[in-house]
Amino acid sequence: MAIACALSALPAVAACPDYTTAANPPAFSGPAKKTFSKFGNTILAGLYKPWHMAHDTIVKAGTTATITAKFDYDAVLHKDLEGERVHAYLYGTGMSGWQYVGNYLTDSDGKIKVPLGTRPVGDYVVRFVVEGDLSGTTGYLSVVDPGREAVVFDIDGTLTINDFEAYADYVGVKTATAYYAAPQVVNAYREKGYQVIFLTARPYWVTKDGLEWLDIQKVGRWHYHSNPYGGGPIPPDTQKFKTDYVRHLRDVVGLNIVRAYGNATTDIAAYADGGIAKANTYIIGPNAGASGTQPIHGEYGSHLSFVVTPTPVASCKR
């Protein structure tokens, strides 16, 4: 109850996230299909399925934004698409239709960096289309007022029942199983006006699977931040990766992170080092309640009641 009272005392200074507009874009008309500039890429796209992804970005109001996307093929090989044109389009808060941003040439890693300028506070979807085969992906931009209240969620072992579920999902053995009521907890925060942040130590190349899993669970898929590490399935230094991003969200973006959810000792340490109080850190699984954190035992059924009822709406809704 003390946490709920503390939250209710926060000043109403930030606009609520726009979870509706970017999720419901108008009809889209992309570029005309043209031949790949490199014959090898024609073979690549003919043999393998696209496995493209974009890194969601979140910036403070008045700050210029850039979004990075990567284009490769095959879930296992991840063969980069080099030296090809990709077209970018933007739609979101306050816009009546898609805006063409421009076309960009992928680099030797299959990446492009797209400048989006300084946008009004709101949420935006960025659609990328490869000119050579019209395959594509999407990413999201959030422009936030300083002080916007946010809740951070780890995914593996926190929303899913254990850390190994993601890899079974990735290799197509099964769809990762969610803890009972975990998706409802996430959606309850969204409905109350909090900025939801998914912070996962998964390497970037499983982003496609992660976003599809959120879709299956009927959870909105942004803001999703994965580890840019490009090596094996378990990136090193996950604690530092998470700490650095929490600090970025608080110190650079200006988010007021009111709660954080995890399952591992690295989550506990990363959140603490990032400046999140143990009283606002919720841990599920074998480490529940460790190091003075708030325990979630077994599943999220009883915790959902706490989120739905005692937890106040975000200050932007008051």
From TrEMBL:
InterPro entries: HAD-like_sf, HAD_sf, LNS2/PITP, PI_transfer. It comes from the Bacteria. Residues 151-293 form the LNS2/PITP domain. This is Haloacid dehalogenase.
